[in-house]
Design a protein that fits this description.
Elements lengths: L1 H7 L2 H24 L1 H9 L2 H8 L4 H35 L7 H21 L2 E9 L3 E3 L7 E11 L5 E11 L5 E7 L5 E3 L2 E19 L2 E6 L3 E3 L5 E8 L2 E3 L5 E3 L8 E6 L4 E5 L6 E4 L2 E20 L3 H20 L2 H17 L1
């Protein structure tokens, strides 16, 4: 047992592992560039469930991932054993408190690594959630939790590049009461109970039509209703991307391409008519009414990526501890601390 402990506390093991990790990472970079489609999935799925689902089918391409996992696990064990030994020696020998600083960095690294492990085993990643302002959708895999888009603010530079982006979100509980509000960005998510909401994309799309009904302008949502000047009610029906009529006079889609888009408009008695959506100007007679397409109603939307990473708080805490340890090492250890004190004293004397 003592020999095993010495093996894992060896500095030579640390050096060998560092070299091996660098070599495997370089190998993995080459393999991932040669197989971009396969490794794109690694950015979109939770690591270990994906690896287990692949099994041995792509072992030639994923062997470096398994090797890196094993090496990282040994490196973490090596770090933990070394840190324990050193801290124990510091306490026994009653060395100055500055001697703890390097090991604060090690502890931060281990905490962050635990967070990455937890996030690589549990959680989920969900893409392509489109929301218009005021719209509410359920959060995937989280019963009783909903997200609402309150608004988005986008500013672009004169060159056309994105300069500023802020998406305002509100999370709602089962009783529709807000449980968290905040802003989400591309790389700055809104986080709630380990669930991260990222802004992925934004734009505008048509959500309604501006119609001329018997000479009166009417606005109707694509899935809504509208009323003619005489009180006749109409309801929007199905949209046909590539509209055509069969021999019986029934509508159908020739394809899913928007080659000949039409929308079904139903009267109160269920009689359909089909309005061309390819551009402003088309008109139809629907009973005694004339309906003309004047324009479209555009609404801004955002696309959210919703990820649950149960280890994210460990990563944040570990990163804070690691950075704090490095700052202590940089400014408050040994000769450097003395140099800082000398500079401070010189500045005071000058003033």
């Amino acid at each position: 047992m003592t020999g095993l402990w010495r093996f894992f506390s060896s500095v030579y093991l640390t050096i060998a592992l560092a070299i091996a990790i660098c070599a495997v990472s370089a190998w993995g970079s080459i393999v991932s560039m040669q197989n971009p489609q396969l490794f794109r999935a690694f950015d979109q799925e939770v690591l270990f469930p994906l690896l287990f689902s692949l099994g041995t089918r792509y072992l030639g391409q994923t062997l470096w991932v398994w090797a890196l996992i094993v090496l990282t696990a040994i490196f973490a064990l090596n770090t933990a054993v070394c840190t324990f030994d050193k801290v124990l020696a510091i306490v026994r020998n009653r060395r100055p408190w500055q001697a703890f600083f390097p090991h604060i960095v090690h502890v931060g690294f281990l905490i962050a690594l635990v967070g990455h492990l937890v996030g690589s085993v549990w959680g989920f990643r969900s893409y392509g959630h489109v929301l218009h302002e005021g719209e509410v959708i359920p959060v995937p895999n989280e019963k009783g939790l909903y997200v609402r888009l309150d608004g988005t603010e986008v500013k672009t530079a004169p060159s056309g590049e994105l300069d500023y982006l802020k998406t305002s979100l509100t999370l709602l509980g089962e009783d529709s009461q807000p449980v968290r509000s905040g802003h989400a960005g591309i790389n700055s998510p809104l986080i709630y109970k380990g669930i991260a909401f990222y802004h992925f994309d934004q734009g505008e799309n048509p959500t309604g039509l501006v119609l001329d009904v018997d000479g009166t302008e009417v606005t109707a949502e694509l899935d809504g209703t509208f009323t003619a000047p005489d009180g006749s009610a109409f309801m929007m029906g199905r949209i046909y991307p590539d509209f055509a009529m069969d021999e019986k006079g029934d509508p159908y889609n020739r394809s899913e391409q928007f080659a000949n888009p039409h929308i079904e408009i139903l009267s109160a008695d269920g009689t359909p008519a089909f309005l061309d959506l390819s551009g402003p100007g088309p008109a139809i007679r629907h009973g005694r009414h004339t309906i003309l397409l004047r324009n479209y109603v555009y609404s801004p939307y955002v696309v959210l990526t919703i990820n649950k990473d149960p280890g994210i708080m460990f990563i944040i805490i570990g990163s804070i501890v690691l950075v704090a340890g490095m700052a202590l090492l940089l400014f408050f250890r040994g000769e450097r601390a003395e140099l800082v004190r000398q500079r401070s004293g010189a500045a005071e004397r000058t003033n």
